Amino acid sequence: MSRFWSDIVHQLTPYVPGEQPKVSNLIKLNTNENPFGPSPKVLEVLKAEAADVLRLYPDPNADLLKSAVANYYSVSEKQVFVGNGSDEVLAHAFMGLLKKSKPLLFPDITYSFYPVYCGLFDVGYEIVALTDDFQINVEDYARPNGGIIFPNPNAPTGRVLPLADIEALLQANTDSVVVIDEAYIDFGGESAIALVDKYPNLLVIQTFSKSRSLAGLRVGFAVGDVDLIAGLERVKNSFNSYPLDRFAISGAAMALEDKAYFEKTRQVIIETREKLVVQLEQLGFDVLPSAGNFVFARHSEKRAVDIAARLREKSIIVRHFTQARIDNFLRITIGTDAQCAALVEALTVVLED
Hints:
Distance between the termini: 44 Å
Structural class: alpha/beta
CATH class of the largest domain: Alpha Beta
Order of helices and strands: HEHHEHEHEEHEEEHHHEEHEEH
Radius of gyration: 20 Å
Low-confidence stretches: none
CATH topology of the largest domain: Aspartate Aminotransferase, domain 2
Number of strands: 12
Number of domains: 2
């Protein structure tokens, strides 16, 4: 603790990201990165940006990317906000849309950045317990609130809500902003972007880090009513008017344009996920239904912390959480077929010991 820190710094409990080991020859299945590289067309436009124009500032409005998102989802550019990763977009939403006198609601098992942002921006909140089978019950959110936020599919569980449930939630909370964090939606489920024209209190946030293989570029976006987007723009332009660089803008726009590559790699990941679920169940794991590029599983006899440690000895890293209710689960990113086969082989040995 430093005596030079501002008072708020002493009160913060920072988010802890998934481990990024600086060791080669690892099978890294702990941070839900895409096992496939970006579209070759994306790499081409990135090369083109590595030129004399880098001496110039990027477009502060990122109009090229906003236009690409608007065209892809059949919305207007004024309904699109972009930022430096979906985490930054979420941060602006917490500050600009979710800081109210009534508490923000989100699940007890969810993306662990939410309580961090509440601490940073002094947002009061209440957690809403998932059901015994780790599902979100929208009826549990029928209480006074200053906003609602959760991932869909939820993280780290992978369970997804159908659009009908999200619409019921919106209809029951017309005076609150409802933020649906869709980092993993492309691997299963339907995007709530289809509802933004009908519900002015809905904000949908997505990322290019997962299904578009661009975690290294840090690009996220939100789609919602023009009034919500205008609020986010006011916050953004009071913080950093150039959040996206030239590479991020051009690369993300091209990632949306190359639909064939996106569909091909996404489908491979979905198929590999379904195959891995069967294999894990055969090894004695209980696997929650997943619509993400990961699975959430616990073994019937072995402790998750011990399994994770033994896998690490075999140069395979998965994510283990210590939080109550899920401390015996492992979150396993869907890798390539070869990586998942190596995981299953290693688990077979570990579980026999």
